[in-house]
From TrEMBL:
Name the record gives this protein: Kinase
Coiled-coil ranges per UniProt: none
Any Pfam family: APH_6_hur
Superkingdom as given in the UniProt entry: Bacteria
Organism: Bacillus yapensis
InterPro entries according to UniProt: Kinase-like_dom_sf, NH2Glyco/OHUrea_AB-resist_kin
Molecular functions (GO terms): phosphotransferase activity, alcohol group as acceptor
Any Gene Ontology biological process: secondary metabolic process
Amino acid sequence: MEIPSTFRDKIIGAFREEGSSWLAGLEQLVATYLDKWGLTSLGPVSNLSYNYVLKVVDEDGNPGILKFGLAGRDFSNEVRAIEAYGGTGCARILKTDIDNGVMLLEQLIPGTMLSQLEDEEQIIEKYIKVWKAIRRPRPSDGEFPSLGHWMEGLSRYQNSKAHLDGLISEELVLKAQSYFRESSSENEELLHGDLHHENILYSDVHGWFAIDPKGVVGNPYFDLVSFLTNQLKDNPQEILELRINRLCDGLSLERLKLLKAALALSTLYAFWAVEDGDPDWLRPYQCAEWFLKWIEEDRE
């Protein structure tokens, strides 16, 4: 079975021994569920991240996506978030075994990623439609984690070797914590938690749909940040400010509130990347510095 080395490295970097153990049993786990659910594998998707994802067909030739992740709270949060969306704005779940970290999802065909579009204005327009489609009230069961749990990562950073090495400035960390506290309890709802370009796909049946929600509760401003800081190639600062302005206009948001939420989460993203040994940690860190610059300019 094909398990790319980059995927192995990412899993071990994020989950250490637990990840190594999971990888060791992955081939058998895949074989078990292909047989149990009557599926044929067509091979893994091209952009594997923290889950092993296969394109499959069932015994009637219907396509699907078979997804394997480390069983636990993060996986169950994703399942419950997908169920909360109920097939509106987000790909449906067809079967699941939460205890073993396995789910079968509908496949969005052709599955064009939002990142494959070239016109930034068009990208933002499509993004706004999907963002609106998946707004849901805070679940009454209280089982989803809050963004506050995520932000505890910055406290870990302050006690880490990366902090001692000065990779992320103390000023930025303190401001991130302060700005998060300012807005964390306002208008809390169910958030996707990772709504960026590669998690929005085009379907001939549904149009543009979300995939791979994290399932977390918080202020909806925070559900824009992974999109803001993603896929910044040519003229990144210019594109980032364009996104901020267009999202504020299109969603009737307060610019300063969005900038503060963006600084808080992008600083956390930078620490997560450092913690996982990801060399791309400088991208969200640079974004956090730009957010701070614009916050200070807007206050003048």
